[in-house]
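agent: user wants the structure for Adenine DNA glycosylase from Maribacter stanieri. delegating to structure tool.
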Amino acid sequence: MSFSGKILDWYHINKRSLPWRKTTDPYKIWLSEIILQQTRVAQGTPYYLSFVDNFPSVHDLANANEEQVLKLWQGLGYYSRARNLHAAAKMVVNEYGGVFPDNYKKLLTLKGVGDYTASAISSICFNEPQAVVDGNVYRVLARYYGIDIPINSTEGIKYFKALAEKVMDPVEIRDYNQGIMEFGAIQCSPKKPLCLLCPLNDSCVGLEKGLVDQLPFKLKKTKVRNRYFNYLIPIYKDMDGAQFTSLKQRKGKGIWQNLWEFPLLESKEILEIDDITIRYKEALGDMESVELLEYNDNAIVHKLSHQHLHTKFWIVNTENDFDGKISIKKLTEFPVPVLIADFIKAFKF
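agent: tool returned. relaying tokens verbatim.
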């Protein structure tokens, strides 16, 4: 039996029951694919269900404001995906009359849609014979064929795409593409793959040569950058006992674009309370009559793909009213990075 035939047989027996497997609606397939990029199925499924519930159609998503989209996305990370999702929905409505493009080339015109996503949507929804290549597919092909070309190199991307096209089943492309991705997620997993029970084990080069744990091969990542964040949380209580604080929206092209956070003082190293006493006005302006309290003794290390954020939170109690204050009761309405969301939940104002 061929490679693709074994993948299809395995898939028909072992496929998981997932909500997006019950439809070929391109809107829902697109939603699932964008959400599941760099996200595990278990983590991504509640987000998918929430998006479908809040935005049943592409028109609903296109007409939403960005803060609604970012709030629903909160906790998934890589927030550019959410902004691209929103932009692409608007493109479908404004440029394609609310009807999703029905082929690979047109799908590529949508914001945030690359080769993998276009291949997945076109094959699953429209049976177009396009081979998908995601992390799971790279892993299966690299191990089975014993390929040590780096998957994150220009040569590797071209090589694996060509190989994926060569071994795919163009007739049953919908099930085959889902099958090889599922196979990589369950059978040929990154750690502790089930080689002894694998239907491909009699012809897997990686298994034969003892290379399973070493494949796929990747070039070393970019050096991680360390940054030092000091969040200042001003707390003001009015005559009626209502509490207020401050949030600011991040702008520019850096991390967390358009999300909200407490006033930030970034430094070149971890700061102590004496440093904050001297520098807090850099983030809060001319706020007087303050009491500074250190919330966490040790910096929280929040790890992003190429950055480690060493973060401390400082409580700034003040008797002075200040501009732009927001009610503590409304804090949870703002889309914030998960680092900030975790603090809000833990601090319990």
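agent: one observation worth passing along. The chain has a mean pLDDT of 94.
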